[in-house]
Amino acid sequence: MIQWRLTRYIREEQTPHRDLLRKLKWVADRFTIQYALLWYIYLTGEASFRKLYKVYRYLSDKVIRENTVRKQLSILERKGLIKKEGDSYIALVDPRDVEDLFDRERSRAGKIGAAIKHMKMASKSLKISPGLSYYTKQVVETAQKLIKEGKRAAALDLITHTLLPLRENAILWLWHQDLFIYYEPKTRQRWRAVKSGEIAKLLKNLGFTPGITILHILGHSEASKIIHRIFQRGPYSWPWARSISYGLKQLGLLQETTNFKIQLKKLGSKIELILWNLYTKEQLCKYEINWKYEPPEPLKSRHYIVATVLGKQHVREEIEINSYSSKWRR
After folding, report:
1. Which helix (H) or strand (E) holds 267?
2. Containing structural domain, residue 227
């Protein structure tokens, strides 16, 4: 099903160390040094930090500080691709399963008060910023009003870009149980996942059903006007809208999750979506939808997609803290 482009370059059997480094050098040049480190850990079974530091220095061809290597390893850990045990690291995935996370070519071709009551959350014990409470209430009440007016797509798009952490151009592809899968064309790791039982309840209360959720793009134009009206920050209205989701995350209402593999197929007027657990290979769900409009990205130019979905919103926590969560500090 998946074409492994690295199979003819790196194989699982043991290779002489010099030959292995040569192959890793190719990986680093074609993809990234981070991906080469993942391959080294995978092929050697486990690797100490000292060994990984030496490999990194060889691959980078320049003087590297230990902290630089530790940072790259921490990013791989946060992505859920490796695990630290003592002073050694082990791989949690076959690197071939996550090649798309490091593909430079693919990257270039293309990054609550009243509202919580609506979500049936006990808010008394939560330290809620007044601003977060106000804006979330505005979003939920506006979505309810849109539903009453029959503007379901606009209501879903409004929730998608506020209560969920999607940028202006991102596409919410799937809602399954408490899981939400979305695609962001401008980011390097384009597929992401978050989970929220409360947002799932809210959507059900608004009359939506789980499955493929690309309906929201049909209401994007109207939702955009509403977001600018609610937040009134000109070009910064979208980052402020998205920051609500990070406020919800601080309250435990939105959570990160594990990694997945997603498959999309365009079958005439139908679109098929299948989701697997990346580690166990268990198929989690399969949905189809009749779609008479132009398909959204990434199916706009391709009929078949297989990609890795990261369960982390940001692999660099400082981005989340400084750019989004800080807007709702008391």
Report:
1. strand 260-267
2. 113-328
Burial of residue 21, with CB atoms counted within 10 A of its CB: 0-12 exposed, 13-18 middle, 19 or more buried: middle
Within 120-223, strands assigned E span 171-176, 179-183, 191-195, 211-212
Q: Are residues 82 and 224 located together in one domain of the fold?
A: no
Is 294 buried (19+), middle (13-18) or exposed (0-12) by CB count in 10 A?
Answer: exposed
122 and 91 fall within a common domain: no
Final residue of a structural domain among 62, 95, 128: 95
Rounded average pLDDT per 10-residue block, the chain, 330 residues: 40 58 89 92 92 92 87 92 92 91 53 44 52 89 95 97 95 98 84 95 94 97 95 86 90 92 94 96 97 93 93 63 51
Residues 299/264, Cβ–Cβ less than 8 Å = yes
Which has the closest alpha carbon to 216: 272, 246, 175? 175
Same domain, yes or no: 245 and 322: yes
Is there a domain that residue 31 lies in?
A: yes
Residue 9 is assigned to a structural domain of this protein: no
Phi, psi angles (nearest 5°) of residue 173 = -95, -35
Residues 175, 8: Cα–Cα separation, whole Å:
37
User: Do 291 and 303 contact (CB within 8 A), yes or no?
Assistant: no
